[in-house]
Design a protein that fits this description.
147 residues, alpha+beta, Alpha-D-Glucose-1,6-Bisphosphate, Chain A, domain 4, 40% strand
């Protein structure tokens, strides 16, 4: 894609079923409980292609988001328009023995992609490992699946 810079990616092995992690992802209003870079998030419906919402990061301004890909138990992707560009947030689940490998990937697209990668990307790079460790802890405590 023109104007795309290198993606930022981090992963973690979670000793829980993929459905448990996906259930945590699908509970969008509670993202701030495990994602320290998110102050508020909501969608106008379930985590499904076409759902729209808003994401307010801890730093910066609120942005619109739209779900462009969602396969329960496997993956979802949201895109957020930023200054005429797009930030893409991919979330992937890869089953491994005893659990799942969780990958979060963030990429920047558009004429300001390089600048966004150097500025916003710095915070994303620092925050992703913390976010994933908190997600792991939540999933392994069984807080993803309803009792």
């Amino acid at each position: 894609m023109p104007g795309m810079t290198d993606a930022i990616e981090a992963g973690v092995r979670v000793l829980a079923p993929p459905e448990a992690v996906y259930a945590i992802w699908a509970d969008v209003p509670h993202w701030p409980e495990w994602d320290p870079d998110t102050r508020q998030a909501f969608l106008d419906g379930p985590l499904a292609v076409g759902a729209r919402g808003r994401l307010t990061p801890r730093k910066g301004f609120a942005v619109r988001m739209v779900v462009v890909d969602a396969v329960p138990g496997e993956r979802f992707t949201v895109e957020c328009p930023v200054l005429g560009n797009v930030m893409r947030f991919e979330h992937l689940l890869q089953p491994v023995p005893g659990g799942v490998h969780v990958i979060h990937r963030v990429s920047f697209h558009g004429w300001l992609a390089g600048w966004l990668r150097r500025t916003v990307g710095r915070d994303v790079e620092q925050g992703l490992p913390i976010t994933l460790q908190r997600l792991k802890a939540r999933a392994e405590q069984g807080r993803g699946l309803a009792a």
